[in-house]
Write a structure and sequence with these properties.
The chain is 66% helix and 0% strand. It contains five helices and no strands. The structure holds heme C.
Length: 103
């Protein structure tokens, strides 16, 4: 029974390792992946084509501060408060650092 369980576990572990290696090999950082969800509203690389504010060229301090304030409700919002509730402090830091690299 135990050995069957381990046989089952092996392909899953191998798959997860392969997935992790693939995204690193392609040079996609965790910050870039987390920031993909922002493009739907803020445009590619944060360059908004419409009414939603552009976040391209903003500093990492600005992005991490506003995201943290949206999350706590300190900064009023329509959607950002709900959107940021899903991110940890570490993820907000990675997102902010990623946007700051887009010049
Ligand atoms: C569903 C659409 C949507 C998504 C997805 C979204 N935003 Fe926003 N964002 C908005 C809107 C709308 C505002 C204006 C504030 C509000 O009403 O929530 C805003 C405001 C902001 C602001 C403040 C801009 C300023 O100049 O005041 C920042 C920074 C920001 N978003 C960052 C992000 C980041 C980073 C992500 C991805 C993690 C993201 N947003 C995802 C819609 C979105």
């Amino acid at each position: 029974m135990r050995s069957r369980f381990l046989t089952c576990l092996f392909p899953i572990t191998a798959l997860l390792l392969a997935a992790a290696t693939t995204s690193q090999a392609a040079g996609i950082s965790q910050g870039a992946m987390l920031s993909n969800s922002c493009a739907a509203c803020h445009g590619t690389d944060g360059k908004s084509p419409g009414a939603i504010p552009s976040i391209h060229g903003k500093s990492s301090q600005f992005i991490s501060r506003t995201l943290t304030e949206f999350r706590s409700g300190k900064r009023p919002s329509t959607v950002m408060g709900r959107h940021t509730k899903g991110y940890s402090d570490e993820e907000i830091r990675l997102i902010a650092e990623y946007f700051a690299t887009l010049k």
